[in-house]
Write a structure and sequence with these properties.
Structural class: alpha+beta
Largest sheet: 5 strands, antiparallel
Mean pLDDT: 79
Radius of gyration: 17 Å
Oligomer: single chain
Low-confidence stretches: 110-115, 118-130
Distance between the termini: 40 Å
Number of strands: 13
Shape: globular
Number of helices: 3
Helix content: 10-25%
Length: about 160
Amino acid sequence: MFWFVLSVKRRNEIKIASQLENIGYQVYCPTITVVKQWSDRKKIIEEPLFRSYVFVKAAKEERNQILSVNGVVNFLYFEKKPAIIRDNEIETIRKYLGLANASIQVVNMTNLPAQTKVSINQGLFMGQKGEVIRSGKKTVFVQLQSINMMMMVEFKL
């Protein structure tokens, strides 16, 4: 069983995750709480952290059944193979989303300069090796190598 990344129809991530759960798959669709401003009001809503992506834990043989779910576009491929997320990457996302004093957003790594990887040797992120690629006083970038994306965690001091 592996964690695969599904590309899904935009704005249907939570609905598709629910459908996959209902047929027996272990699914993870990380969400964040955001405040949206309309002309006449503000509203607090849950949005997917990774737009158009849902993580599903399944065997390779189950891929065709997953693709038959309405709204699933395809599996995400990285280097011509289905992108597989390691369990520790899923746990890292869960850990950071569980922190009350952190705000998280996702940034595409193609815009970052090459060779900016660092290892954290002090503070909350001590022991993170090979995943944190840049850090500042209040910001840490955690690399998800499997899907060529990065999670930015900003701590409010």
